[in-house]
Amino acid sequence: MAQENHFTELIIRMDSHVVVKAIKGNRIRSTGGWRLVQAIQRILVANPNFSVMSIFHEGNRCADTLADYVCTIERVILKMQQQPSFLRQQLRRDNLGV
Questions:
Q1: What is the DSSP string of the chain?
Q2: Contacts for 40 with CB less than 8 Å, ≥ 6 apart
Q3: 75 φ, ψ (degrees, to nearest 5)
Q4: Whole-number Å distance between alpha carbons of 15 and 58
Q5: Beta strand 10-14 with 50-54: parallel, antiparallel or unpaired?
Q6: Per DSSP, what are the bridge partners of residue 50?
């Protein structure tokens, strides 16, 4: 999707450290999972400005809230100039480290 929309940079942050390690080169046991990891690795190699990194689970709450919101609208690509009101509580909690 990022390639189809001509994104020049993409940063994926996820709270699954195992998945991030697998993408960054650690072998996983699942054959189906390994094929997916290899496909992701090929995309990352072909697009040097795309990256995958780990974050703590607590840091993913804002992303979860945004993902829930995106599932309720028709257009997937959003460009926001400021924080949406539905995300303010999550951002406050994130700033407090809760």
A1: -TTTTT-S-EEEEES-HHHHHHHTT---S-HHHHHHHHHHHHHHHH-TTEEEEE--GGGGHHHHHHHHHHTTSS------SS--GGGHHHHHHHHHT-
A2: 23, 52
A3: -90, 130
A4: 8
A5: parallel
A6: 10
Per-residue model confidence as pLDDT tens for the chain (98 residues): 777 778 788 888 777 777 788 888 877 666 667 788 888 888 888 888 888 888 776 667 777 777 777 777 765 566 667 777 888 887 777 777 66
At 24, which amino acid appears? K
Q: Show the tokens assigned to 39.
A: 């496909």
Please name the amino acid found at residue 52: V
Mapping DSSP to helix (H, G, I), strand (E, B) and coil, where does residue 2 land?
Answer: coil
State how far the Cα of 96 lies from the Cα of 98, in Å rounded to an integer: 5
**24 by DSSP, 3-state: which?**
coil
Q: How far apart are the C-alpha atoms of 15 and 20, rounded to whole Å?
A: 8
